[in-house]
Backbone:
């Protein structure tokens, strides 16, 4: 049985492949990627698979029975890209699709949610058995800002006192590998999030604790935070989107306390302190 992994050379994809190799014979794994040469170090077969070149999709899926569809990273293009993959999977006879969606996609106010909801609808209408992994925020989404916070002397954002139930990217990768390598998941929708919720004020306190520096959290209005991000070189559209996601966090879009993720992987999710420590190395 062949398992195909889209986006296998991406940050999440690489971690999924490593987790799958611990559970499945490597010969049964196929990296579905735009540039197979970038997958050479994964230790599994790789084939050309480009969302924007539909002719590559059917060929890439010709031997695949189970497919992990890691959502594309081109916001605004994902619905059509995912639609092409799902249609190619239907034509190729793929027997099961596991899709990485967004936490509470149907009720989330995050701008990211719409394309995930649309993709989930496409999956339901496809006739292909599916499982939906609604991934919460990666803790790395925030710890990636630590160097800038240390330089500026403060951690800034617009989340207010919103609680964030994030988990390390590796936790979500392990969940995908567990689902793909075990039975009983078809038709299920998993709301995946970290065990312990925190505010960005808590994150700033943890950074301060580990660095010995006083790094306060400065909560800014959405437009002001977007302006800060723009001043750091981000395009206005991306800066505005990131600031809007913080507002979503302030509304509870990134909070979940059901511990579905830790139950699925059979261990607690990675503590915030551990991910902060890794970012400081």
Residues:
């Amino acid at each position: 049985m062949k398992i195909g992994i889209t986006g296998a050379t991406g940050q999440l994809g690489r971690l999924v492949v490593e987790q799958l190799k611990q559970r499945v014979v490597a010969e049964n794994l196929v990296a579905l990627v735009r540039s197979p040469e970038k997958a050479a170090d994964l230790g599994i077969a790789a084939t050309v698979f480009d969302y924007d070149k539909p002719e590559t999709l059917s060929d890439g899926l010709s031997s695949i029975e189970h497919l992990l569809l890691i959502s594309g990273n081109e916001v605004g293009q994902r619905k059509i890209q995912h639609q092409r993959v799902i249609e190619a999977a239907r034509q190729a006879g793929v027997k099961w699709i596991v899709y990485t969606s967004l936490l509470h996609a149907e009720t989330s106010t995050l701008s990211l949610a719409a394309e995930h909801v649309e993709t989930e609808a496409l999956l339901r209408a496809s006739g292909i058995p599916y499982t939906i992994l609604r991934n919460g925020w990666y803790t790395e989404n925030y710890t990636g800002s630590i160097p800038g916070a240390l330089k500026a002397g403060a951690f800034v954002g617009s989340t207010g006192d919103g609680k964030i139930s994030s988990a390390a990217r590796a936790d979500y990768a392990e969940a995908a590998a567990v689902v793909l390598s075990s039975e009983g998941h078809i038709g299920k929708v998993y709301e995946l999030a970290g065990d312990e919720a925190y505010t960005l004020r808590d994150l700033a306190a943890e950074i301060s604790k580990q660095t010995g520096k006083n790094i306060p959290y400065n909560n800014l209005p959405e437009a002001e935070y977007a302006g800060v991000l723009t001043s750091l070189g981000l395009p206005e559209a991306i800066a505005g989107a990131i600031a809007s996601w913080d507002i979503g966090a302030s509304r509870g879009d990134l909070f979940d306390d059901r511990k579905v993720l830790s139950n699925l992987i059979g261990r607690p999710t990675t503590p915030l302190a551990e991910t902060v420590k890794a970012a400081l190395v």
Remarks:
- The chain has twelve helices and nine strands.
- The chain has a mean pLDDT of 97.
- Residues 141-163+195-256+267-280 form a domain with the UDP-galactose 4-epimerase; domain 1 fold (CATH 3.90.25.10).
